[in-house]
Amino acid sequence: MLFINEVYNCFEKKMGSKYKNVVWDWNGTLLDDVQVGVDTLNDMLVRRGLPLLSLQAYKENFGFPVSAFYDRVGFDLSQESFHDLSVDFVKTYDKYALEVSLNPEVREVLAAIRQIGVRQYILSALREDLLLQMLRDFRIVDFFELVCGSDDIYAAGKIERGQRMLNHTALWPEETLMVGDTVHDAEVAEALGFDCILFAGGHNDEERLRAKAPVIQRMLEVLSLLE
Fold first, then answer.
1. How would residue 155 be classed by pLDDT, with cut points 50, 70 and 90?
2. Architecture of 10-32+101-224 per CATH?
3. Can you give the residue ranges of every domain in the chain?
4. Which of 57, 72, 159, 201 sits at a 20 to 30 Å CA gap from 4?
């Protein structure tokens, strides 16, 4: 009850927000799956006799396109196709997927933003059908006007998908805040003309994030920007 009061206190004077839209990233931002990502990657590495990654090393190296990240952490793309690695990642991730949950405060913040009429979207590199299923499983799909995922499993990046999203929605970039957890999210926001904040609890190291955009430590801080 104390947390719910904290959320709504943040909104008492927020009705004049310059932002009419919030575009969320999914993995690492709304979804707390960083450790699952590390476990998945290390499972793949150990099966190939490659050195494992610590959580910190993962955050210092993770990025888009994922093919370049795989190359950095030791996978030999001359011996194994990126397609095969991508299929392996999806299958291995599924082994750990029961351990994922939403990040703290996410559900309450989504509800508070909806209550004041700010529209919410998701822009993700995850394949769209998988993304929609996860949103249904967590019972949060109804918070979003539109869910935009990838057409495949390769996680190449989100700029092109974001441009297609803009072409098919009445979403004005100057009225839009993007919330992500990676350097790539800041690059996407810049390319699309969005303002951006980055969550420190996701897939990239905080030092890398601060070089790109303002950083928040907890989801509740998003509400303080909607003023």
1. low
2. 3-Layer(aba) Sandwich (3.40)
3. 10-32+101-224, 34-99
4. 201
